[in-house]
Amino acid sequence: MKRRVLITLLCLLTFICQKSIAQQGVLKFSFQNVPLKTVLESIEQQTNLKFVYSANLVDVNQKVSISSFEETVSNVLKRLFEGKKLII
């Protein structure tokens, strides 16, 4: 009986932790014609991520328009850099 309770508790804690981690990567914002740097800073503020990039490869001053409502970081980055030859 004790073993069954322990296994159930471990499964429940695992589920809660996974859900919590997944929610950290959900973004909410809307930007119109702002520098790319502004969008990246917003993503950094909403997550525990930090972006490192080369000024030779990424023009962080280019103007972009993008919005996200409960979208994953991965999807936002794919859309943000769509058509550009970058490794994400």
Structure description:
By secondary structure, this protein is an alpha+beta fold. The chain is built from three helices and two strands; from the N terminus they run αβαβα. A two-stranded antiparallel sheet has the order 1-2. Residues 17-23 have low confidence and may be disordered.
Give a brief outline of the structure.
This protein is an alpha+beta fold. It is 48% helix and 23% strand.
Topology record:
Elements: H1 2-24, E1 26-35, H2 36-46, E2 63-72, H3 73-80
Antiparallel strand pairs: 1-2
Give the number of helices.
Answer: 3
Report the biggest beta sheet as strand number plus sense, adding barrel if it closes. Answer: 2 strands, antiparallel
Oligomeric form: single chain
**Succession of helices and strands:** HEHEH
- Which percent range fits the helix content? 40-55%
Structural class, from secondary structure content?
A: alpha+beta
Share in β-strands? 15-25%
Could you name the ranges where pLDDT drops below 50 across 5 or more consecutive residues? Answer: 17-23
Strand line-up across the major sheet: 1-2
